Amino acid sequence: MLPERRGVIVGSDVNKGADHNSDHGLRAVRRSRRFGRRRLLFWLFSFAAICSICIAVFGFKLFFHGVEEHQSIPTLTSVKEILTSVEDVPVEPETMDPPKKKPPRGRFYPCKVELRDSVNELVEPKVFGKFVNFSLNYVAREDRPSLEHPITPRFGGHQTLEEREQSFHAANQTIHCGFVEGSEGSPSTGFDLDKEDKMYMNTCTVVVSSCIFGSSDFLRRPTSKLISQYSKKNVCFVMFVDKETLVKLSKEGSTPDERGFVGLWRIVVVSNLPYDDMRKTGKVPKFLSHRLFPSARYSIWLDSKLRLHTDPMMLIEYFLWRRRSEYAISNHYTRHCVWDEVQQNKRLNKYNHTAIDEQFLFYQADGLVKFDPSDPKKPLPSYVPEGSFIIRAHTPMSNLFSCLWFNEVDRFTSRDQLSFGYTFLKLKTTNPDKPLVLHMFKDCERRAITKLFHHRNP
Ligand SMILES: *[C@@H]1O[C@H](CO)[C@@H](O)[C@H](O)[C@H]1NC(C)=O
Ligand SMILES: *[C@@H]1O[C@H](CO)[C@@H](O)[C@H](O)[C@H]1NC(C)=O
Ligand SMILES: *[C@@H]1O[C@H](CO)[C@@H](O)[C@H](O)[C@H]1NC(C)=O
Q: Transmembrane segments in this chain: where (predicted)?
């Protein structure tokens, strides 16, 4: 996703400054370097200006493909981004889209979200939708005793392709859904939590959660004055971090108090991270809140780049109760077809290209079709989500979808935008009479209820 990349660039400059601050001897050198940098900047600006004019004149849509969201950020970043994204564009003629009327530029604005006036008016409906009911259980342990083929225990388990196929059925069954341990006595497969934190998490019925692993971001506290007393009392706000991040946050003054809180966030330290890839580890709290919070009926996920700007109960009312849906996620601000998303991921070198191809070819072989915006019966408004904000009821179907999506990320790449559409469509075709009631809302709504920041450099 773009903001992550952008954050890296912004963050690296900030950090460099901070690192050198104690180094008084270097100040003069730095100052002259800064002037050098300014001159460089001037030329960069000029170059960018010329580029923009060229682009405006020739309408090179491709140049701006990855830059849309950057219009709103400081010019320095934009310039760099434009330069890098120009380099990033490998021109593959057969995959280029036909030029559209206008290149998508301009800022992305929030739009009106008609929330209720007050949380006090809200009453949880007994039934707010016709959701499929079945009993879903999770593989807790894999101990296929086999001396010839011992398996290394892993967090996601070793789901076979047959088991994977079966898992898409909305039926009473036991499926893989992370937290898989090896045989008795084998070491933990990871995502270890403190006992007290677990006890706290077991009590939560409504959860707002987020994570920072590998010091990849700052701690953004929910805007307290916009959160009702009711929610402060009844909603758990849990921020999962690793030890490294905890140390870094503490250095910056965000030290948890004796109860483990920084503001509204309860800081929960995760040890023994299950994946080397921090992004993959981040998908555990993102998708598996029904496993982490077994008593929760609702959960809201927000990426660490977002600050929650709205009362969580109002969001549950607006996105779930009012729409009679059990899962709400926003669509991507420009891309709706997975084919475009794959191109973009490769263009910006978001992930090992071979791994992306493997995943995408698998999906195509299994019947993934292109998004057709003109189809009046299209199953979703978009096949590409902006997954930084998810609101869900912990119903069986919603939990099933979360597990299935997690399993895709576990099996393939951590780029979850690539697997969302496929997983949803496969679930739908596997269970024609048992729908997941999904509300895919507009990205501008996401912008209205949260505030977007840049990630920082790890
Ligand atoms: C859903 O099914 C489970 C068993 O599969 C049952 O215990 C529960 O009462 C059912 N809930 C509703 C609302 O029907
Ligand atoms: C699931 O099990 C419950 C009993 O626990 C039963 O009432 C229900 O019919 C089963 N559902 C399916 C889809 O088999
Ligand atoms: C990229 O992915 C492929 C297939 O998953 C793997 O064989 C290869 O080692 C990976 N390359 C790198 C540099 O990680």
A: 40-64
